[in-house]
Each structure stands twice: as structure tokens, then as C-alpha cells.
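ok so i was messing around last nite and threw this chain in just to see what happens. nothing serious, just curious
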Amino acid sequence: MQQVKVTARQPQAHNVISLTLSPIDQPTLPNFQAGAHIDLHLGNGLIRQYSLCHSPSSHHDYQIAVKLEQPSRGGSAWIHDQLKVGDVLTISEPKNVFHLADEAKHHVLFAGGIGITPLLSMAQALLETDASFELHYSAQSPDEAAFYQEMTSSGLQHHTQFYFNREGQCLDAHAVLAQQSQTSNLYVCGPQGYIDYVFECARTQGWEESRLHRELFHADPCANSSDNQPFELHLANTGQTFTVPAHSTVLEVLLDAGVDVPFSCEEGVCGTCITRVLAGEPDHRDHYLTPQEQASNQEFLPCCSRAKSASLTIEL
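result:
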């Protein structure tokens, strides 16, 4: 963890602002790879994840972009309404679960809305190394496309195709993917429905899972809670046992009992609360673990996932 100062705040699109975060006690901030994000500790006690959206070659400052969510769960509203230039924040070291594939000969980037942020960093890194790539960016209109002016006035314009839904320019992912070779890798970030659409197109065309990479910002509800059943939860480290009722999450039960659990998004997206499973079968409802990781049942996310078995034993 370290402290940074907000040294710039600029509008980037309708309801989207960018923030420049500068070091306080040292000349630079830690290096990072394209696709990385940081945890931002907000003044209202919340922790939120934001992708670093600038080139990894520049680490004198960090840049993030924040869309005002409607309704907001408290994070984006606090940033838009309260945070100002000169304020000091605590951030984590950069984390990366959305890497560029070293073996790929060509990179196909798909961004939906504010999902442009990690892909913008990737595109800049690829541009600087003369790597082969293309970027497909979908937004409602140019006014709602973050960093549109920056992208259309730089070398990125030669690699980027924009799609503005309100102007009738909708992405045809089937057509884009049909033109790719077996050496291409696919990267998607945006709303869940957007990712599902692009991935479905790729899988229909026979793309291997190892060539598909994605990052979510927000998830749709994990499952219909009317199907929930209570189950027993055992903590191997302490020997404690809890009943998780149908109307509560594992995370809520643990926090109510005073158990220290790291968490952030509470949507099964960020992976902050990932926990090892020692016995029992989880009912995975997250959007963080890959299908292979879910099938292994070695870990689950207590913020939204539950149990298919009568009990779960976890290491916490």
C-alpha cells in the first residue's frame, strides 16, 4: 500500500472522468504490465478496483478513469462528487489478471463502454513495440466514448474501429473474428452481456479457451436467489461452524461473526475474497474464475457463490 496525490482530474466522456495519481514520497510509482489494475481506498471506507489506462512505459504517475454508475454503489459517486485535485488516497500495488499473451502473433481487442480502460493500456503497449493488433471499441456515441479524442489524434487511430450504437454502427463480432488466424488472441472488457456476445461468437467459430481473455467491471446478478438453500460452513483454521441461510451470502455471515475477510466488489468480479475450498462442492456464481478453475472446486468467491453440497469446508 502507498499514498498518492490526485494531481489532475479531467472529463473524458459523458459521466466519465480521468484521474492522475502521483507519488508523494518517491519519484516514480511501481512498474506494471498492460491490463493491470489497482485497489483504490476511498474516503468513505470503500475499496474499488480501477484499471491503469496509460502506457506501462510511463510510471511517474498512474492514470485511471471512473464512470459515474447509475445507480452508484457508493464508489463512483464519491469519486465524482467528493474527490478533488490535491486529495491524498491510498492505493495497492498494481495487480494483473488480464495479461497480454506473449505467444500471440496478433491481438484482437474488444472494448465495451468504460471497458476501454485496460485495453487502452494494452493498445498503447502494443503500439510502442510495433506488435500486430486491432482494437474494436463500442459505445453509445462519440460523447460517451472515453478517450475518444486522444485515440483519434494518435497512432491508435490506425488500429481502431469505433462502433456507435446510436448512429446504427453496431459491432458484428462474428465478421471480425472470422477474419482472424489461429495465432490471434482475443481480449474483451466491458459489460457482462458484451463479453458474453463476443465470447459466444468466438466459441461458435472454434476458438480455443486459451486464446480468450476477459475482464469484467460489473456483473449481472449471479443467480436467482429464490433457488438458494441453507448450508453449513466450516472454517478449517478455527474449527468454527456457521449456518448460511438462504437469504444471506457466505461473506455476510462471516463478517457478521467478526471473521476478517478481504472483499471489495461483492459481485464475484474482482477476486479479492477468493478462498480455498477443502471439502464440499461450491455453487460457483462468480465471473472471476475460469470454467476450468470452477470445475476444479479448489477455490470459490464467498461474496456471491454458495454450496451445492450440504456443507463446505474452507481455509480462512
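not much to say yet. The chain is about 20% helix and 30% strand.
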